[in-house]
Amino acid sequence: MNHSVIFAPVYLVIAAGKLRSFTFEVGYNTITGRFASIKTEGYELVLDNEFAYRKGNFPPGWVALVIPALVGLLEEHLYHVDELN
Fold first, then answer.
1. Which residues form the domain of 25?
2. What pLDDT was estimated at residue 37?
3. Mind listing the pLDDT tens digit for each residue in 8-27?
4. Rounded to a whole number, what is the largest CA-CA distance in the chain?
5. CA 30 to CA 2: how far, in whole Å?
6. Number of structural domains found in the chain
7. How far is CA 52 from its chain centroid?
């Protein structure tokens, strides 16, 4: 069974100085276990227990800014998902 928590859009300033709307999601699924993802404007980056992958043509520096945010989401919020299982 899949569980996830979707966070309201969060606004972050990118190195290029543009303001973009991001949606964060953390959760658990039966295939990969825990995961966190961030999506914006056709881009998606997913981090789970096995690997990180991305979809889309990311602007320079984007992944370097996003991975720490995903790691923080995994560490802070996924214990709630464990309680659901």
1. 3-84
2. 74
3. 344 443 434 454 566 767 66
4. 41
5. 6
6. 1
7. 10
